[in-house]
């Protein structure tokens, strides 16, 4: 057995007229994230972390923006496709740690359902999914509430 780690990052601007999807869950908010797919920064960061751990680039190289096939794609489905790649490498997720950077909305009321959803997709227990949220302390575009970012780290065990 060997272990591999991967890290990922994603950021999208907040705009009117879009639903806010984080960790595969719709979060009630007056703004949503703008992007080619559903712009779920949590699942995109996790996808990048998984792909990095198996040495297969980033999410954009597998699901290119501009390719109509992925327009408004559900990031849950994209993450499932990435998990297929992880499994083909004879790896399994041990745990993951995600940090969301946002001035608003507060994620605490949705943390458990997001962790459960991620656990189901990654085929790990909820206790192996860490989800934290922090602000950007008013600094820069994230601090002005213009967008949301996410950082993710995963640990894989491979045969």
Provide an overview of this structure.
With 159 residues, the chain is an alpha+beta fold. The protein has a single domain (2-158), classed as 2-C-methyl-D-erythritol 2,4-cyclodiphosphate synthase (60s Ribosomal Protein L30, Chain: A), CATH 3.30.1330.50. 30% of the residues lie in helices and 32% in strands. The chain has helices at 41-53, 59-62, 75-88, 111-122, 140-143; strands at 2-15, 20-22, 25-27, 32-33, 91-101, 129-134, 147-158. It starts with a strand and ends with a strand.
Give the topology.
Layout: E1 2-15, E2 20-22, E3 25-27, E4 32-33, H1 41-53, H2 59-62, H3 75-88, E5 91-101, H4 111-122, E6 129-134, H5 140-143, E7 147-158
Parallel strand pairs: 5-6
Antiparallel strand pairs: 1-4, 1-7, 2-3, 5-7
Helix pairs in contact: 1-3
Briefly summarize what is shown.
The protein is α+β, with helices and mostly antiparallel strands. The chain has helices at residues 41-53, 59-62, 75-88, 111-122, 140-143; strands at residues 2-15, 20-22, 25-27, 32-33, 91-101, 129-134, 147-158.
């Amino acid at each position: 057995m060997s272990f591999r780690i991967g890290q990922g990052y994603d950021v999208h601007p907040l705009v009117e007229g879009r639903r806010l999807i984080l960790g595969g869950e719709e979060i009630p908010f007056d703004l949503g994230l703008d992007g080619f797919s559903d712009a779920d920064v949590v699942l995109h960061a996790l996808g990048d972390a998984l792909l990095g751990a198996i040495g297969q680039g980033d999410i954009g190289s597998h699901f290119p923006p501009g390719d109509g096939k992925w327009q408004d794609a559900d990031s849950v489905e994209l993450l499932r496709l990435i998990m297929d790649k992880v499994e083909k490498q004879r790896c399994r997720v041990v745990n993951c740690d995600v940090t969301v950077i946002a001035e608003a909305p507060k994620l605490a009321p949705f943390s458990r359902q997001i962790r459960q959803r991620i656990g189901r997709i990654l085929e790990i227990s909820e206790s192996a999914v860490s989800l934290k949220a922090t602000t950007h302390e008013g600094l820069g575009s994230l601090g002005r509430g213009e967008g949301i970012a996410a950082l993710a780290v995963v640990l894989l065990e491979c045969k």
